[in-house]
Amino acid sequence: MTTTVPSTPSGRDGTPFRHELYPYRGDEEFLSGTLEFIHEALDAGEAVVVAVPSDKTSLLRGELADEPAVTFVDTTTAGPNPGRLVAAWAAWMRERGEGDRPVRGIGETAWNRARNASHLSELRYHEWLLNRAFARSSTWSMLCPYDAADEDQDALRSLSRCHPLIRRDGQYTRNEEYLTGEEYPFEALADPCGPFQELSYSHGDLAAIRAKVSQWASDAGVLEDRLPKLAVAVTEIATNSIRHGGGHGTLRTWAQDSTFLCEFRDAGYISDVMTGHIRPDADQIGGRGLWLAHQLCDLVEIRSTPVRGTTVRLHMDVRR
Question: For an engineered disulfide with 145, which of 42, 108, 243, 256 has Cβ 3.0 to 4.6 Å away?
Fold first, then answer.
């Protein structure tokens, strides 16, 4: 049996961030749940940030009559990489907070528009990361609508595990399936598809890596104006390997499903899962390499354990 959560529930044990999943079916249920969430906020004097697909934006605008406390934002401005979304939400919520004013966010991902299995996996990981990123925020809360009408139950269950609370029939309850551990259960990275290039690198090899990757990426179809971005990202990740991964690493590149991939492997370990997802402070020492990679590439996958070391995959779309 589920019990109704108190008015100030914790998103994780001992943390105040409220993160709700709202499974719905059809436009009518979408409107009833989201409008209820919005009106709760307005009655409490809170601001609301809404980031949903364009068709859902039209539905909500038609019901809200230009309510000044509600701001609609376009998630596409953050680009295709889900690794940029935590920082984007932090900026949107902070801008609307005006000091200590509480802010509620409504964020619906267009799951059916995921580019591939890797992109879908990183979208789910983003949902889990929100709990870590905003764990200590007592003034932010978020509702994540999810259209369950055309999706399989396995997909819904996987997403549900990333949300500590679930909303049904106007109430939110604790989600017993929520992942309470400190480690996220990543899917294993798929093996390279087809032939790949491989080389080892260490001190003094950065220029050679940039040149080789740029040539291989161009041959695979990456547009010329995107090659400098990829070169910067490659340099940053290889530098991290050399500095923090034992002084050397292994690089693989290949093309797959209209994407050029660069994979870096080394013996290092990234202990902070938020590295690369939060904009580094101006005076911060280190921590910029993964942040830049997320800003420059279409997708970044990271797998890191103390035993197996670190694997970073950079994805760059090729011309179609």
Answer: 108
